[in-house]
Design goal:
103 residues, alpha+beta, Enolase-like, domain 1, two-stranded antiparallel ribbon, 8 strands, 22% helix, EC 2.3.2.27, E3 ubiquitin-protein ligase
Length: 103
């Protein structure tokens, strides 16, 4: 595997805003972890993912069984070192290129 970057996002409880499923209602946060290889391209993607997070593009709020929860947004993240593309993991030879294009 080599060295890996592990961005960790901690989202706490808060109230949703305009544009969310139920503005003004509280939502449940969570801990989210994603993996990137520690190489030149991985570091470049990490910077772009940080910018996306700061712009509010990394997560979204969804209604699930009557509760508002934070989930991953439209930007794909690798949440496992294994399992391949189908399980949001590695190996996935195209991931860094694909997410770079999206970002």
């Amino acid at each position: 595997r080599g060295k890996a970057l592990q961005p960790l996002f901690k989202m706490s409880y808060s109230c949703s805003k305009a544009g969310d499923p139920r503005p003004g209602y509280p939502y449940k946060g969570g801990n989210f972890c994603a993996f990137l290889p520690e190489n030149k391209e991985g570091l470049k993607i990490a910077k772009l993912l940080k910018e996306a997070f700061e712009c509010g593009l990394t997560f979204q709020i969804k209604s699930c069984n009557g509760e508002e929860i934070v989930t991953w947004g439209p930007i794909p993240h690798k949440t496992s070192w294994d399992g391949g593309k189908a399980r949001n993991g590695y190996p996935d030879a195209q991931y860094l290129h694909e997410v770079g294009t999206i970002l």
